[in-house]
Amino acid sequence: MKANVKITLDDTISKHNGLSRNAIAVEGKIRPATIGELCKGESKAISFETLRKIVDALNTLTGDKHTIEDVLTIEYIGE
After folding, report:
1. Are 54 and 9 in contact (CB under 8 A)?
2. For domain 2-77, which CATH number applies: 1.10.10, 1.10.260, 1.10.287, 1.10.8?
3. CB-count burial class (<10 Å; 0-12, 13-18, 19+) for 57
4. Phi-psi bin for 49: left (phi > 0), alpha (psi -120 to 50), beta?
5. Contact indicator for 77, 2 with CB cutoff of 8 Å
6. Which residues does residue 75 pair with via DSSP β-bridges, in sequence order?
7. Which end of the chain is more exposed for a tag (fewer CB within 10 A), N or C?
8. pLDDT value of position 77
9. CA distance 23 to 30
10. What pLDDT, on the 0 to 100 scale, is given for residue 79?
């Protein structure tokens, strides 16, 4: 089986009324373009530090406890 990274950040943002890509960028001190590229699936890589900042920003802005799966997941593709 092949593994494929699926970005779930845009879905997570959609679940929270009033939450925006820009709010996550500002709160996490991340370039807005980085968040945009992730949400559009245009990013080729993400550092652990950026991933942590996104999860921390989601936690702060929503008051919920978020995990890596709220930013990205692994899907398996049958061969």
Report:
1. yes
2. 1.10.260
3. buried
4. alpha
5. yes
6. 4
7. C
8. 87
9. 10
10. 58
CA-CA distance, 79 to 77, in Å (whole number)?
Answer: 6
Say how many C-beta atoms besides its own lie within 10 A of residue 48's C-beta.
8
CA–chain centroid gap for 19, Å, is 13
pLDDT tier for residue 78 given thresholds of 50, 70 and 90: confident
Q: Are 27 and 61 in contact (CB under 8 A)?
A: yes
DSSP for 62-73 reads HSS---GGGTEE
Residue at token pair 């899907």: 75
Other beta carbons within 10 Å of 13: 19
Determine how many CB atoms are found less than 10 A away from the CB of residue 5: 14
